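Assemble and predict.
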Amino acid sequence: MHKEAAIRVPLILGHKTYGDITNDVCQPIEGRAPKGWYILFTIALIIGLYGVGAILYLLGTGIGAWGLNKTIGWAWDITNFVWWVGIGHAGTLISAVLLLFRQKWRFAINRSAEAMTIFAVFMAGIYPMIHMGRIWLAYWVFPIPNQFGSLWVNFNSPLLWDVFAISTYLSVSVVFWYIGLIPDFATIRDRAKKPVAKKMYSILSFGWSGRAKQWNRFELVSLVLAGLATPLVFSVHSIVSFDFATSVIPGWHTTIFPPYFVAGAVFSGFAMVQTLMLTIRKAFKLEAYLHIKHIEYMNIVIMVTGSIVGVAYISELFISWYSGVEYEGYAFFNRATGPYWWAYATMMTCNVVSPQLMWFKKLRTSILFTFFISIVVNIGMWFERFVIIATSLTRDYLPSAWSMQYPTHTDVGIFIGTIGLFFVFYLLFLRYFPVLPIAELKTIMKSSGEYYKNLPDTHHEEGHEDDAHNTTNNH
Amino acid sequence: MGTTKKYWKGLDELQETSSFLEKKDKEFQQSMTIDEFFGNKSLNEASTGRRDFLKFLGFSVAAATVASCEAPVTKVIPYVVKPENVTPGMPTFYATTYYDGNSYASILVKTREGRPIHIKGNRDFGFTQGGTNPQIVASVLSLYDSTKLRGPRANGEEKQDWKKEIDTPIINGLNAVKSKGGKIVFVSNTIISPSMLAAIETFKTAYGTEGNFEHIQYDAVSYAAVRKANEVSFGKNIIPDYDFSKAKTIVSVGADFLTSWLLSTEYQKQYSLTRNPDAAWMSKHFQFEANMSPTGSTADYRSMIKPSEQAKVLSYILAKLGTKTAVPSDLRSDVQAIADKAVAELKKSKGESLVVAGANDVTVQILANKINSVLGAYSTTINTNNPINLFASEDEKMNKFAADLIGGKKPDAVLFYGTNPVYSLPNGQEFAKALEGVKLSISFSTYDDETATKCKFITPDLHALESWNDYQPKANHYAIAQPTIRPLFNAASALESLLIWSDNKYERLAKDSKVAYRYIRERYETANAGGTRFDMVVHNSCMDTEKQGASASFDDAALSNLKYTQPAAGSFEIELYQKTAIGVGLQAGNPWLQEMPDAITKVTWDNYMTMNPVQMKKLGYATIYDEKHGLNLATVTVNGATIELPIVPSPGQTLDTVGIALGYGRGENGTNAGPSAYVTKEYGGYELDDKGNKVPVGKNAFRITSFNNGTFNYYASSDVKKSDKPLYLIAATQLNHTVMGRHSIVKETNLDIYTSTGKEAYNPANVIGTHHGDKHVSEFDLWEAHPVENIGHRWAMTIDLNKCFGCGACLIACQSENNIPVVGKHEVRKGREMAWLRIDRYYSSDEELTTGLKKDRLDFDYNAAEIASLNPNVVHMPMMCQHCNHAPCETVCPVAATTHSDEGLNQMVYNRCIGTRYCANNCPYKVRRFNWFNYPSYKKFTQINPAQDDLGRLVLNPDVTVRTRGVMEKCTFCVQNIQTSKLQAKAEGRPVRDGEFQTACAEACPSEAIIVGDWNDVNSAVRKGSEEKRSYQALEEIGVKPNMWYKTKVRNDENPDLAKVQVDKVKPETNHEH
């Protein structure tokens, strides 16, 4: 058992027993869903179905249903794609990188952050598919043997790298998430009374029996997967940024993009985690497991990554001027003062100014303020992608081709729709999956639980035995 | 053992239960007796018998089997007997002549499997030397217009039988008129066909009683004043033959001689010859005009005057040359400054100058004649002895006829040929009403248009590509128009109809009638016995005869009678002009022309008033427009006619003037002017007005023309009243109008700098400083070079910016050659026009010394640079795929749908494209076009895209794929032509010759600004052109290595500031070298 200094703020408040943890996490799954869940689910479903309708309309009529033109080939589609991929970044960072760094506070958020990641990557994945003019040929992006002779994909294309990066990221994230869920599913299975639920959870838990051998393998696999996933945290968004960085378009062609995109992704991912966790915490009464300290930690991550992003913005501006390149210089001048200045201003305010407020302890420990900022950051990050992708395209080399981008109902509908769909998935997750990692939380109970921390040292051994009993019985 | 072994099918059998025993012997256990079965009433009611059922079953199985096989293959059935000259897959070209009353050109028609698919200028024969205009090139689509009349009409009803239902009643009617000595009026556009004139004579002899037959030639846009002025000046009612190629100084006062004025198809080529800065001399061109015209945009000096000031400018010049006239010659100082320069140049180049004037005003034209006479132009650049037969409009006669008709003095019979006075007369509406009362009225119109619908009979003429005709455009030139396809509809040549009605020796023989052909041939052979064989003339399409030398002496009495017309009341003067695409509206229904961006404003699908943006801002009009931001509507009222149009900013427009294009508003009141003459709704279908009529595109500006001093005038005065209506959305293909001081896109200098300094001054090499010293950008490479240099072919193109004046013939040629879909106003508004080739038009701004050159690099105001100058310099820059050897589009395609050929072409594989649009984003030139919808089938485009019409589809080039939804497309360098010429060369066992392969745009360019060829051939024109000191590559510094070179624009003007910058830049370098 890892020993933790007493002065560190405990991660689990109150006198929680192992049984309490199990009960607290399983309660929402086993009990009846509250009215609020049904209301939210219905709203999300309606919005999601509207989005599906918009997608079907798009697929039926053609990409012309979007507000794109000869100058601007990507706008809301790829903006949303990058936005969702960015959001999908935090999960793996939390589960993999923080796991490797032995950050115990991650247990309060990793399960739902991973779920968020997966659902966000689902949503992200929709866009590259539907943005194709001929989606029915989408499989051509895979290097599969074909009847066309030696026809092969173009390995020079960053879009192809995207295909590999996103699919790898999604599969590793899903596996990682699922492996973590197995012991918890087993817990639920053991407690389940209804036969259907029991059957379902027993299938989901892959016959987990909690033997030491299994726990040992579980730990090992988690570690190996964390090792695998860590580079992915950096690769995915770096590769997404290559879509732009390797191009010739001023405003896209920027070597700073990979680190800047990764930082931005973590930034927006944590903001989304904040938004979701603060809600769950309230709804599921998980204040004991996710308290001010956790929120503060996350706010610090937001502040740091936000500052990285801010520095990147300013470096870009400086370099565009310093380079003396006509087009580059104008691209950034145009961002700040051109017809889309308001998008740039929104981005700057939301992403550069707002995280700096986190320097104030009072603000970063305020739940309401955190919730507000988390939303602001996600708005800001959407605009960042819009500014980079669409604004750069609106005015590039030849002034004769300059244009404006106006979204259509289909653009907006699909974006809102993916938010709806995301929440459909997420609400289902909340209802049927353990939102906190039961097994993993229990591992920090002794070292970081408030009750145990406050116990005199001698009591430790006794307590341990008591609770070991609880664990096996899974009350 | 064996006997005890028991096999059983089930436990029931083993146990031998009673129920089993009961069922044991019944094969069909749930029994139904036959009676019961046939006793079922519903069975009897069913009509399907057993045999039928089996038949159906058999058929269904067979059908399903067949249907489940591959999609049915429709096989092309080869000719059993191959027609002469038609080889499937091989085009046949016919030389012929185009004349529609407004434009004239010798053309070549490309036909495939018997259908004309493309028109280009004939460079080998005819004085137009390959010059065409967009209307001529697009006329091939009008041939396939399915909304044309399919047969003759009598009293509004379509008839099948010409003889019985048309000819007989018409002949009877004419005889009745003749017997009572009634009056017959034959109204036509200018007829330059000798045969047609002879036929009219025959007709006159047949039915006209003395003094009671009148033939009125009436053109929609008249140049009657030119003829009148020449009558007064030289005693000859003619339009002389102008030769711009000999003019060192060209002064045009309001004449857009490159795209609309007189024989512009001829002048384009002549003018372009004088615009070569490498030649012994380069012309100096002064333009005084109100609207920015394509001609004005290419002038060296352009001065903004009001339409009413044309006479003043000419009078001023004349005064400076020593002849005072009664016409006032007071000019604003800015106009005077340029007029003084013009005078100085004119004096310098006596006898080698040309002064032309645009106004259809006798005084203006006499003044121009006098100037030319003073300068000795009548022995060099103007030939009055070889007159042009076009534009013989008799305005006075027409005006009187219209007045009489409206006034109740109606003729007994009236015929309309090639003219549409209801549309083009200022009092057309009254004319239409009066026309209804004429007993016998006949129109030869191919549409049930404004005039034709008011006539009792419509006897549709054939399209120019379906009929025989002969023309005498100039005194020394005879031309033939031959059919290139059998008539599509039950129409007949007007020549034939006239002959049949006047002489019963001619007989109707439906589509295969040879009346017109024989008549023309016989007339030719009688007149030219022993001369060139008729077949030879047909083959060449024309024949030149001896040209009279130029000489004329000006009769000064002409000057005594000059009348200066003061503009009528109104704070704005209105100049009516013709757009290169729409002209006088003859082909308003042609979607290619409607969608072609205007040469200057780049607006499509609309007419509008042009106003200087500086003035618009002062008056509070919106000046910025795009997909969602419209422009203010405003009204002008002239002689009681009110027109409401949006106000479009047009830099260079004279203050206090507006320009309105003619040729719009066709097909009012439920008449028909073709499918694209009407406003379509965003999601398909036509916009309808309260009466259920289709709403025409634009407004008819002919209503505000007027008749003054014996001619129709195309300028007016009015107040411009801003409307309170919501802003009007307009579809333009270019929304930003300046080049923002970007020097590597457009390069410009002037002749002095060009001749006195080296390339470094105006076209410096793109170098990057390294620690090894300066290196040319081409030395920096991320990729390995494509194996195109010095191996095999490397197709390349040069475009001379000095010769491009934006006429747009190339745009239509490209559209026609490459099956480019028409997308309609709403899609153009959204920036989704599909044109592979566009002409970027850049205005200079006050921040620039000249287009593309910053005044001050360090203190450059980008926002100010977006605003064009009051009277800017203009550059027209054709822009299409640059076929980069290091193409950014190629690397980013995930499925390698766009690849590089070993001949330097950037290829697009439609079949492989999945439509990510990454290539389009990564294209620095933004020339890639995406199929946002399925243009050949989506209902949104039914009204406008010819590919959705069974007949319109015939215009498609079978060598070029029609692209489907979701794929990217772009300029291919007309790769089908490359293949053809390569195969041809291979078959003949020789290398491809220089000039053998042409792109559609290069062929169409009247000034030959576009040259294509094999760059690896060191002797090719394109290679040599690319190595000229004016040649540069657009955006060379980004290293995409295009196979396209542009040639620096050289203006023949003085620009001391420019000289300071460009020449001074070179000086320290030269010092350094010393």
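Residues 461-475 of chain A have pLDDT under 50 and may be disordered.
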